[in-house]
Amino acid sequence: MEVPFKEIGNTLAEQLPPLTRHEAAVEADRCLYCYDAPCTHACPTHIDSPRFIKKIATENLKGSAATIFASNLLGATCARVCPVQELCEGACVLGAEHKPIAIGRLQRYAMDHARESGAYPVVKAAPTGRRIAVIGAGPAGLSCAGELAKLGHAVTILEKRELPGGLSTYGIIALREPVEVALDEVRMIASLGVTIQTGVELGKDISLAKIQDEFDSVVLGVGLGRTPELGIEGEEAILDGLELIESSKTGKSTVAVGRNVIVIGAGNTAVDCATIAKRLGAERVTMVYRRTDREMTCYEHEYDFARKEGIEFRFLCQPSRVVLESGQPVGLECLRVELGLPDASGRPKPISVADSEFVLEADQIVKAIGQKKPGLAALLGLETRGGFIAVDESFQSSIDGVFAIGDCIRARGAASTVMAVQDGKLAAAAIHRWLAERVDTASAAEVE
Ligand SMILES: Cc1cc2nc3c(=O)[nH]c(=O)nc-3n(C[C@H](O)[C@H](O)[C@H](O)COP(=O)(O)OP(=O)(O)OC[C@H]3O[C@@H](n4cnc5c(N)ncnc54)[C@H](O)[C@@H]3O)c2cc1C
Ligand code: SF4
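Output (structure tokens, whole complex):
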């Protein structure tokens, strides 16, 4: 698949350098190669970490990559974007008294080798003759498509954007994952025989009925939408944080960063927006949140990182209006907040104090308060759970033969790339079984 690399010019380099051969060998040698390793249990895709690390120690990098790919086809992305402190490295037995093994960076070392040498997985299964459409080329769709291809199915991905990769391409800041890494991973999935068509949107360019006519089953990996509305006066002058990140990643910069920037929100995306604004030249960046640092939804290490980057924080502030001059923001009016009893989220309810308005100066205001629920569910008449596409334990939606995976079904808990990848893997196995059962049923009917 041809991917228009030339148009991409990252404005920010990857934060961590790759390990050198010597560093990787020293780090791999520290591993205890634990039996029933807790790091493997802590990985949502259950990568056999001691096994791939041992292979690095013996300089078998091809074998190391193969071990990773066996559990997770998107190992290069996950090595960079996974919150390893909360997952494998957080569970490493050495963490209690020493430094945990740098599992993420070792995984990146093995994956970089695979990328540079083309040591990619190959399809060994015979073609099954079954055709599957995957909607969305994000981590969930790519993982599912790759696993289905490995099982011998003919897979076509339909992606609405110009470039595949989903949030790995457009949403995860380049400090963590450059666009080239995401696109190389897409090429690897294509090398398994997966067809990827970009610029095709389900619900606009093609209907579900047409896809169902042409394919034996359909998988929706459509992710979530843009940032929701705050519902305050002057909102039209607020920049969507996803747009800021996208512009910083793709080099097609349509967004100029302000001098004095406010970011509304306190999750990981808000920290990303604040970091990017700062690195792109903002003199002052302030994160505004209606609760306190105890209730922030970003990871603790992200909060620490933001503080080290010089990001300022204003807690217990409820934005109420954008102050405009000649249509341009000059400040954010906020109300003071007091915390009440826990609300449905389990966190203290923020209660705005009447007549407590004050203005924080800013020449750019960015919102990063999550993503909209998948709008496609209503369009296709799918059952939902809390606004997300409802699926059973086999990832079947309320329409027979239509499966759904990734962020669009993640009604509970934090969504992450590695969880989307695992959904894709498990759904591929479920679809394989579902197709086999249909063949069995059809054969039984013919015999009768
Ligand atoms: C700013 C940001 C930073 C993040 N950082 C991290 C991180 O550091 N670590 C981490 O683990 N997770 C992170 N996440 C979460 C992670 O990116 C997601 O959990 C993951 O990308 C979900 O994968 P997905 O395939 O379900 O959805 P997506 O990545 O959103 O992909 C969905 C794809 O479907 C396509 N699509 C949508 N509708 C249609 C349609 N109708 N027809 C055709 N195609 C369609 C979209 O264009 C998109 O390419 C971050 C999320 C955001 C927003
Ligand atoms: S828990 Fe730590 S020491 Fe044990 S196998 Fe995993 S990485 Fe190695």
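The longest helix spans residues 417-447.
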